[in-house]
């Protein structure tokens, strides 16, 4: 059996790639063009397998059609999880790429560096899906281009539902119904869990709770940005997780990356899991009979989260910034976007791409993909503020403590709110 791919695989940087030949070409004093007028761009894309094949093909096509720009991909030599640290170290040393694949949740903190280019007015930002547009905007300025777009929905195992005699979920269901369904699906004798949740307290643990917070009328931070926006509703969201834990219907993944959680689901021992479109190729490869449904809600109104990742451009001279903006704009054009979406595992960056016959054909052939695209209409993104990583850390600690039964939802929330408010009280 061939190895299946998780989102982590798709986004993981090629660890075997080296920085040789890339770092030396980057200089903060280099305007970018050689004597022949050709601008060389170093791109740390960090893709492997399907993603690498897709971006390499696009780079080749771009280089052929743009003789005055040469994009060189593959530098960095780190995993995507470590790209922020790698780039930060490069910025400190004065040697950094022209473009790097940066997680959306890291963008705002990275823009503290003056070497992150301001792309305002250089990109066709109004063409992007609203979630993608919001994810690359920091303090009203465009600080990156969207690289990957996703949304969070619930994927369920049809066979386990049938075996338990439980009706499959439908759009418009509630979190109470989710909890009840998970309990009915759980079968300790067969090692079957109703659902699962990452339990290490990292961003994968945290981003799944924000749709619950938004649905309850809360937010990550308040409108003025001086305090958290989940202090009055967070206990209810954490309480839902605590109910799943108390019912023993929740598999808590003890390792980073959620790979173990997804393996339990792929192995037919989990009824439902909140995940994104990156999981669908794996499900298909494993022959799992599955369905996809929007996230449940408290209010009855659909809401989800999108976690766009970005192509962040760095200032290595005006010529390079201009060329980099041209490259990432070209990538988002429907003719190229469709190739990346189908081969690399992204949802369409623009609605124009979603209207292409190629995408409609791909969507029709991929069970449940249309549910993820439709969810983009109600998708929100995490705030693009430099303090978000610290807020995530404290919220992650609270979620993990509830999942492991170490604290009550109320106590865990209070601790997280106090710590996060201290972070927000310090001017950024």
UniProtKB/TrEMBL annotation:
It holds the Pfam family SBP_bac_8. It comes from Kribbella hippodromi. Gene3D superfamilies: Periplasmic binding protein-like II. It comes from the Bacteria. CDD domains: PBP2_UgpB. The lineage of its organism: Bacteria, Bacillati, Actinomycetota, Actinomycetes, Propionibacteriales. This is ABC transporter substrate-binding protein.
């Amino acid at each position: 059996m061939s190895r299946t791919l998780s989102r982590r695989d798709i986004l993981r940087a090629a660890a075997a790639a080296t920085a040789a030949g890339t770092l030396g070409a980057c200089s903060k004093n280099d305007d970018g063009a050689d004597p022949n007028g050709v601008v060389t761009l170093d791109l740390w894309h960090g893709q492997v397998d399907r993603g690498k094949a897709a971006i390499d093909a696009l780079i080749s096509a771009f280089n052929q059609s743009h003789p005055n720009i040469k994009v060189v991909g593959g530098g960095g030599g780190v995993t995507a999880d470590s790209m922020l640290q790698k780039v930060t170290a490069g910025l400190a040393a004065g040697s950094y790429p022209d473009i790097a694949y940066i997680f959306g949740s890291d963008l705002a903190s990275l823009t503290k560096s003056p070497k992150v280019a301001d792309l305002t007015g250089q990109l066709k930002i109004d063409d992007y899906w609203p979630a993608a547009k919001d994810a690359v905007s920091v303090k009203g300025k465009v600080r990156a281009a969207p690289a990957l777009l996703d949304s969070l929905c619930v994927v369920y195992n049809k066979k386990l539902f049938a075996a338990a005699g439980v009706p499959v979920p439908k759009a418009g269901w509630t979190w109470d119904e989710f909890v009840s369904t998970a309990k009915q699906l759980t079968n300790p004798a067969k090692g079957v869990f109703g659902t699962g949740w990452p339990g290490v307290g990292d961003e994968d643990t945290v981003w799944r709770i924000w749709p619950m917070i938004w649905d309850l009328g809360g937010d990550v931070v308040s409108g003025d940005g001086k305090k958290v926006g989940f202090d009055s509703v967070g206990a209810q969201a954490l309480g839902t997780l605590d109910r799943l834990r108390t019912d023993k219907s929740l598999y808590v993944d003890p390792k980073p990356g959620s790979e173990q959680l997804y393996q339990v689901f792929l192995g037919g021992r989990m009824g439902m899991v909140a995940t994104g479109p990156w999981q669908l190729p794996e499900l298909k490869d494993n022959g799992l009979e599955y369905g996809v449904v929007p996230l449940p809600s408290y209010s009855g109104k659909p809401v989800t989260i999108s976690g766009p990742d970005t192509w962040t451009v760095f200032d290595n001279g005006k010529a390079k910034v201009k060329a980099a903006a041209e490259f990432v704009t070209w990538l988002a054009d429907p003719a190229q976007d469709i190739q990346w979406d189908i081969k690399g595992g992204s949802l369409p960056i623009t609605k124009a791409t979603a209207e292409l016959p190629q995408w409609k054909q791909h969507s029709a052939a991929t069970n449940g993909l249309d549910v993820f695209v439709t969810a983009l209409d109600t998708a929100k993104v995490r705030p693009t503020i430099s303090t978000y990583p610290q807020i995530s850390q404290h919220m992650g600690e609270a979620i993990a403590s509830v999942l492991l039964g170490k604290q009550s939802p109320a106590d865990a929330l209070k601790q997280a709110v106090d710590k996060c408010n201290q972070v927000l009280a310090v001017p950024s």
